[in-house]
Amino acid sequence: MQGNPKVIEQLNHRLSEELAAIMQYMVHAEMCENWGYPKLAKHLEATARTEMRHAETLIKRILFLEGTPNVAKLGEVRIGANVPDIVLNDYDGELLGVRGYNQTMALAAEVGDNGTREILARILEQEEAHIDWLEAQRSLIEQMGLPNYLLAQAEE
What we know:
This is Bacterioferritin. Residues 1-145 form the Ferritin-like diiron domain. Belongs to the bacterioferritin family. It is an enzyme of class 1 (oxidoreductase). This protein is mainly alpha-helical. It has a single domain (5-154), classed as Ferritin (Up-down Bundle), CATH 1.20.1260.10. Helices cover 81% and strands 0% of the residues. It is built from five helices and no strands. α2 (38-64) packs antiparallel against α4 and α3 runs antiparallel to α4. The longest helix has 31 residues, at 5-35.
């Protein structure tokens, strides 16, 4: 089915963001594992896998719309130097993703591509759940203090 070129272009932008998110979450997971925070590492790795499924969904949709997935372009990857930076960078990345998904959903609705809009709505829900979790981590760090938060992340 021939898709709208603007929608395909936007789907490729979302794909580049998802590919960056995969890399960022995987590096952050490995860093946390290396630092002795297996609980946090496990959650970040699971999030990276969710982002992989998002990328796969986008690739399938682009192909369905007779577009070409651009997997060579990678969005910005921001690696944190410590746990608070990791949480903040991942949070900022998710906010960027939510804005992008909302814009692409609006475009899809405008051009009558409700299939794409519905697919993106499912991804958007998961991205919002990531934001919710990251906001909770930021709150826990603030309430517990960083040493206590890190101690809790060191326990499996």
